Amino acid sequence: MTSTAPEPDPTRHTVLPEADSGSYRSLRRRPVTRAERYALGKSLRKRVKRRTLADWAAPPDRPDPVRLIELNHQGRLPSLIPIRVGRMIASPYGFLRGSAVVMADDVAHLPSTGITPVVCGDSHLGNFGFYASPERDLVIDLNDFDEAHPGGWEWDLRRLVASIWVAGRHNGTSEDDCGAAVHSCVTAYRLELRRLA
Prior knowledge:
The chain is mainly α. The protein has helices at about 35-45, 65-70, 80-90, 90-100, 100-105, 155-170, 175-195, and strands at about 120, 130, 140, 150.
C-alpha cells in the first residue's frame, strides 16, 4: 500500500518562500535596496490581501482548545498549573492571556505573507509596558518573550488586536468602540512600520 501526502489546502497557511529568502537572514548586511523592499511588500499585498488578515473561522478539524492547553502544561511546575488555570477561567481576557498555544494553532492556518521574523508569540495587550530608554525617553515595548519563535509578523498583530477587542468587551466597551480601537491600533502599526522602514 502506497501512502501519499494529502493535497495542500489553499485555505490553510500561505507561505511565500521568496518573502523570507536567505538574503534576509543577517542583520549585518542590507540584502536589497529600500525600493526593492517596498516593491516586494506591494507584490505580497497582491498575493495576501490586507483585508484577509481580519478573516477567521474555526475549521471543522480544529483541535480541541482545552486539549491544546493541557498539552501546553507539560513541562510546567505542577504546583503552578492550578494557579494558571484559575487565572484563565476568571474572564475571557484571562483565558486569552493564558492560551497563546490555542491562538498560535488558529493563526498558523491563516494566510501569511511568508515574512517570518522572530515574533513575540504572545503579544497581547497585557504584555506591553512603558519603560525608560537609555536616553531617558519613555518608550512602549513588549515585555514577555517566553513564547518567542520565528513566525509570521501577522500572528503578533492578530493576537494584539484580538486582545484589545476582548479586553474592551471585558470592560463593557461597545462593539463599535472595540472595532474603532482595533482600527486605530492597526493604523498606528502600519504608520510606525512605514516610519521605521
